[in-house]
Hints:
CATH architecture of the largest domain: Up-down Bundle
Strand content: under 5%
Oligomer: single chain
Structural class: mainly alpha
CATH topology of the largest domain: Fumarase C, Chain A, domain 2
Distance between the termini: 41 Å
Amino acid sequence: MIDRYSRPEMKAIWGDRNRYLVWLRVELAVCEQLAKKKVIPQSDWKKLNSASKKLIKAGGVDPKRVEHHEKKTRHDIIAFTTAVGEKIGPSSRYIHFGLTSSDVLDTALAIQIQDAGKILMADVDLLLKALASKAKKYKSLPTIGRSHGIFAEPTSFGLKFLGWHSEWKRNRDRLSDALERCRFGKLSGAVGVNAHWGPQFEKQVLSNLGLKREPVSTQVVPRDRHAEFLNVLALCGSTIERMAVELRHLQRSEVGEVQEGFSKGQKGSSAMPHKRNPISGENLTGLARLLRSYAQAGLENVALWHERDISHSSVERVVFPDATIIMDYGLDRVAGIIDRLVVQESKVRANLEGAGKTVFSGHYLLELVKKGATREQAYAWVQECALKSLDHGTDFLNELQGHVEVRKYLSATEIRKLGSVQHQLRNVDRIYKEVFN
């Protein structure tokens, strides 16, 4: 991923330096268990363990050295073990003992996913905090709700944030579940039958690495686990886009209810100095498209030939770093938008007032039905008054009060009560209590 969308901590997880460090951790964990089983003599294990830890402390093998060997071997794991051997010496002969490449690659990938997941979970928690704050702040601010882009009924401005907060709680659960299902490595050998040691050995090594044993592996961990994780990230991206699209619409000149934070010295347009464009929301909308494309690639990686091919390898070298880096960047950016969002309360109220009283039409329809009118009659009467009000600029409540059929069922007091924001939003407190308890 380009530096523009990369935050240092997440980027470092997927860098070559860290990748080789994780590979070395996996190799060393296997060797440690082999030493306990006396497959590796204690004298050799002491040398191997000491040299390996010094190498880890020094930052691991030089990626350039691995690259140098890979030009000849055209095999990344062999190039890696060769570079390790140069640093550790003769005891390195036990590195990669009984393993196939995917044992190291898939187990290391599981560790990297878990490390990335910790960052993403923390990102989500910060976003939840920002959304909760805005939801509480604007709970009592009435606004006009819209469907199809058209004025619908009044709602609470805070419910926009509360709805997003509730969705991110679901996304957090999804992300946690997907990470747990990616917490699986494998050390079961070339075709997954534990030909060199038993499942219990494999389980112990993986446990020491903070992972679980894949119950039935082939040469690889089944890719449905990874596909689920990438699809959860895509779904999170779609939630970000849902938020971004709403905020972009609310920033349109003719709506003007919110503004992204605009810092001193920021420029909105190279040609029009007056512009304050919703660039953050637009940026996030675009990045969500990338996340969905990575999910598609993950799904296509599930079907491999027989016990394994490497058609998934080139895909995963791109999609896992890019998807997690973009998700990290996107969560941080959308949290910043929410935190610094300027809500133009006077414009929110003006837009609601400008919508007129016809936005309460649904209450009159239902009340007339409750009082004995047929639904068809009630709809026709209310629509007649609403369209007359909209077309001629008259007061909707006056139209209802002057309608002969409506007045047979509703008094003037009832008409006024049903046409109030207070009546419309009387259950908002209950909705909030369901979320925040």
